[in-house]
Structure to design on (872 residues):
């Protein structure tokens, strides 16, 4: 061809400067027989001639501010998109298009993709920063070519070039026009694990429809890990695929995303044998290019296609703290609530708080321990302090005092006491219902239109209201409840001094068995709903035959379900503000969509065993232990007459139970704050979508509050934020899979950054959180909103837990959790239900599989895999 247009099979790997990295790779693969859709390329030279004809400058000013660069880029894009192509180039493009689509029985639409000359080079990848367009026909082809050219001048692409030292004038833009494959299934494959960096395995992700849903981060795909050696499947996780990008855009349809039919959501997308096909072609691509590849692929009418192959440029989690000076550690009690990185909008919500030595790093909250160490009156190293901050042991530290730092520390402690004394006094003995009226406060705040979404949480949590009604201080009361650690230390010292031979879990037994823990009561409430559902044969039938998201509508049409629905409304009136990962603004609350609750109810409709068995056993164990303790104390001088030692131990145990309950219950209320903000955000989202300023639900959570305000005012348009949202979605999903390092700039003793799956997994170690020993079959659950099925006596294996997981504890025989501590939700609820629990077990959900026979020792913090199960 001529006039700057070439067929894909006319170019190869050495033509990157002519057609860009993407087109060069695709042309190379097509020439050697890979299943790449046919197409043509508008060359980089054609772009350069067009750009020069417009008289635009070659480079942006490097000393300009971000705002000035954004304005300059916007002007360049506007000029490019508004100019006409030369008749010769326009005719060449349209002629090539006519040849491409000719001879097909069906109408052929095209995919138009940018291919920058600095793209997919291995050292720098512009993935997600340049334009890609689908459903393109002859009428809008020339417009999309110009938009691809213009995307070279997005602020994100310009910033990326500046960060990587790439001169603007050295980069040009070609455009690939290919037959768009109307895929039924699509996805990506990595010939090296992008999370762990392992070179001996291939990772595949797949979903229904076109691959844009995965690439844009809008769907959780099915996930496969395949060993190169023998192509043995190491791991397979079938996701609930709620959304898809259809290969066919109906007339008048503007949103690409559509709902996946219910019967397909949990169905494995890939047909038998297709995993091997994807792995084989992906490894062939790696072998040809000589480095690990990120391969986009599609399946249409049973035929496999490769849509793109580029180098995997970033692996491992070491990049999370890149460029961050100082020594930082994840503060364990906070990390237990924020196991996934927070979305940008949620980060904005929490960044307004003056947190001592804390900062967000890629969505996770880290503490600068160097600053903290200077405030403590101890001689302690950064490493020892980091170990303490992450492990959050109930044992007091044995660090030596520093006399030089003692006066300043005592003064700081006295100032803190003066500030908190009133709060401490008011929280010494609160009734269980002391905070009930906070619900009404949050309801009024949600309806108050004079308070913005951004200002809502500071008004609820942060403003100085020390003498406000105690019901309006749930967050401060939660902080005050950490006196639990002081009383636990006192209890331990008393027991070990006066009864040194008593059992090792004495303090845990004395501190458990508290009535009125709201998380536990919530679990019992779901069990009660299941009991109500069983009373009606018709209601029970609906639960067993319908998926949870369909159950509610069916129940509303069923006269026999009136009593159950009334009980459900009562449950949601109390617990409807809760959610999975409930500090995250993006998390759907149960009152918005109770399908998660109905899924848990369904699980218990199937269970015949009573969940109180554990609690009865735990109560009996406590009674027996108290008899042993009393007998041991009676041997001491004067105890039989005065009994003061037993009274002191009982008082310390009562204080431990009270403050543990206060800690768990105050969270029940202060979590209403983010839920209140979410209500305001959803209202803004609805208005923006109604006005066409946002296109897809949930996009708002990947924006910042100032950007939302700019969209509302008209200062920004959808096109100004679309690329940012997409880029942030992709980054969020990538980081969620990667997980954070526990420390940055310092190594914990005996703690690796990631679980080593190559070592012997028959013996796992963690922290004891609830005593007892139990043997049973494992049940790995990654998300209780999708999978809430656990049989009585199975052992729950979870990545983390929050209150939304509580119902699973009712029937589980024991729990093993990857993230947690003695003070975590998992430990607290497990102790209340009298079940063994081990937390902080790295890689537990990967090393243990559903069906494995395992033994859990909650006193020693150990887990043994006794034998492998049939299920994986």
């Amino acid at each position: 061809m001529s006039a700057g247009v070439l067929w894909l099979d006319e170019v190869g790997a050495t033509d990157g400067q002519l057609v860009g990295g993407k087109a060069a790779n695709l042309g190379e693969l097509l020439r050697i027989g890979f299943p790449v859709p046919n197409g043509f390329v508008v060359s980089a030279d054609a772009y350069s001639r067009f750009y020069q004809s417009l008289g635009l400058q070659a480079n942006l000013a490097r000393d300009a501010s971000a705002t000035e660069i954004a304005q300059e880029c916007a002007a360049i894009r506007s000029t490019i998109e508004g100019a006409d192509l030369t008749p010769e180039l326009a005719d060449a493009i349209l002629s090539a298009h006519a040849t491409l689509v000719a001879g097909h029985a069906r109408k052929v639409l095209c995919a138009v993709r940018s291919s920058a000359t600095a793209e997919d080079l291995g050292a720098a990848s512009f993935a997600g920063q340049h334009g890609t367009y689908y459903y393109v026909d002859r009428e809008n082809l020339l417009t999309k070519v110009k938009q691809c050219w213009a995307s070279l001048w997005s602020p994100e692409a310009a910033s990326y070039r500046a960060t990587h030292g790439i001169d603007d004038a050295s980069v040009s833009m070609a455009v690939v026009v290919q037959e768009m494959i109307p895929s039924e299934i699509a996805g990506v494959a990595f010939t090296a694990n992008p999370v762990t960096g392992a070179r001996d395995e291939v990772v595949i992700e797949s979903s229904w429809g076109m691959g844009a849903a995965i690439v844009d981060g809008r769907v959780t795909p099915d996930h496969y890990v395949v060993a190169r050696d023998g192509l043995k499947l190491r791991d397979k996780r079938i996701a609930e695929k709620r959304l898809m990008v259809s290969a066919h855009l109906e007339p008048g349809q503007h949103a690409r995303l559509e709902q996946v039919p219910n019967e397909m959501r949990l169905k494995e997308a890939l047909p038998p044998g297709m995993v091997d096909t994807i792995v084989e072609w992906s490894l062939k691509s790696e072998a040809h290019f000589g480095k690990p590849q990120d391969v986009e692929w599609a399946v249409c009418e049973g035929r496999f296609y490769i849509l793109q192959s580029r180098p995997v440029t970033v692996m491992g989690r070491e990049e999370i703290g890149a460029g961050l000076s100082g020594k930082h550690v994840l503060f364990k009690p906070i990390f237990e609530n924020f196991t996934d990185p927070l979305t940008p909008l949620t980060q904005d919500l929490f960044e307004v708080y003056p947190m001592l030595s804390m900062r967000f790093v890629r969505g996770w909250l880290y503490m600068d321990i160097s600053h903290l160490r200077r405030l403590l009156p101890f001689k302690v190293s950064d490493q020892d302090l980091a170990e303490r901050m992450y492990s959050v042991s109930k044992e007091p530290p044995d660090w030596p005092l520093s006399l030089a730092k003692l006066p300043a520390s005592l003064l700081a402690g006295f100032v803190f006491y003066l500030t908190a004394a009133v709060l401490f006094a008011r929280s010494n003995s609160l009734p269980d219902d002391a905070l009930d009226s906070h619900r009404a406060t949050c309801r009024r705040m949600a309806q108050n239109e004079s308070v913005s979404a951004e200002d809502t949480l500071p008004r609820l949590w942060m403003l100085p209201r020390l003498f406000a009604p105690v019901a309006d201080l749930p967050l401060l009361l939660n902080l005050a409840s950490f006196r639990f650690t002081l009383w636990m230390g006192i209890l331990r010292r008393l027991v070990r001094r006066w009864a040194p031979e008593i059992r090792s879990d004495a303090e845990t037994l004395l501190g458990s068995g508290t009535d009125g823990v709201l998380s536990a009561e919530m679990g019992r409430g779901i069990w009660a709903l299941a009991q109500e559902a069983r009373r009606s044969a018709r209601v029970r039938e609906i639960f067993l035959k319908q998926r949870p998201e369909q159950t509610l509508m069916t129940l509303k049409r069923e006269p026999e379900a009136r009593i159950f629905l009334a009980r459900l409304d009562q449950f949601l009136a109390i617990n409807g503000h809760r959610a999975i990962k409930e500090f995250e603004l993006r998390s759907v609350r149960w009152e918005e969509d109770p399908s998660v609750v109905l899924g848990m109810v369904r699980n218990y409709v199937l269970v015949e065993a009573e969940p109180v068995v554990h609690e009865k056993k735990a109560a009996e164990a406590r009674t027996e232990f108290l008899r042993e303790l009393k007998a041991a104390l009676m041997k001491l001088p004067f105890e039989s007459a005065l009994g003061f030692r037993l009274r002191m131990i009982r008082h310390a145990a009562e204080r431990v139970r009270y403050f543990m309950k206060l800690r768990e219950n105050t969270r029940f209320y202060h979590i209403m704050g983010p839920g209140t903000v979410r209500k305001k955000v959803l209202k803004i989202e609805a208005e923006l979508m109604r006005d066409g300023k946002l296109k897809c639900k949930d996009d708002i959570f990947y924006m910042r509050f100032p950007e939302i305000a700019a969209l509302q005012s008209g200062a920004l348009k959808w096109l100004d934020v679309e690329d940012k949202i997409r880029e942030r979605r992709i980054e969020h999903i990538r980081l969620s899979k990667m997980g954070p390092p526990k420390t940055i700039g310092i190594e914990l003793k005996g703690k690796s950054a990631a679980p080593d799956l190559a070592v012997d997994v028959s013996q796992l170690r963690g922290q004891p959180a609830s005593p007892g020993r139990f043997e049973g079959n494992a049940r790995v659950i990654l998300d209780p909103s999708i999978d809430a099925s656990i049989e009585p006596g199975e052992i729950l294996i979870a990545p983390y837990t929050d209150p939304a997981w509580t119902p699973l504890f009712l029937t589980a025989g024991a729990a093993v959790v990857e993230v947690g501590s003695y003070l975590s939700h998992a430990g607290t609820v497990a102790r209340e239900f009298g079940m063994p629990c081990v937390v902080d077990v790295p890689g537990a959900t990967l090393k243990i599989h559903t069906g494995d026979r395992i033994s859990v020792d909650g006193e020693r913090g150990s887990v043994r895999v006794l034998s492998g199960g049939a299920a994986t």
